[in-house]
Amino acid sequence: MSVDIRIGIANSPRELSFESAQTSNDVEKIVAEALDGKATFLKLADDKGKIYIVPTASLSYVEVGSEESRRIGFVA
To answer: Which of 44, 40, 54 is nearest to 21 (CA)?
Structure first.
């Protein structure tokens, strides 16, 4: 299973978009802990092992998609 994540960054026209092997609940918990005022950055990993570190002061939004299994084969 994987979950789609999109992160908007202040003063930037682009957003970070990636898939993570973490569950949507895990991602929500990590984001909430980063935004509680104590952390200075948000750190998430994608399903290929890349790590994304974004300063919490620069976060505009974090969008967490629903969890779904990867589709294999052709769709009719």
So the answer is: 44
Q: What is the pLDDT of residues 6-51, one digit of tens each?
A: 999 999 999 999 999 999 999 999 999 999 878 899 999 999 999 9
What global pTM score does this model have?
0.80
SS3 for 15? Answer: strand
Would you say 43 and 62 are in contact if contact means Cβ atoms under 8 Å apart?
no
Report residue 23 as tokens: 């569950």
Give the chain's domains with CATH numbers.
Answer: 2-67 (2.30.30)
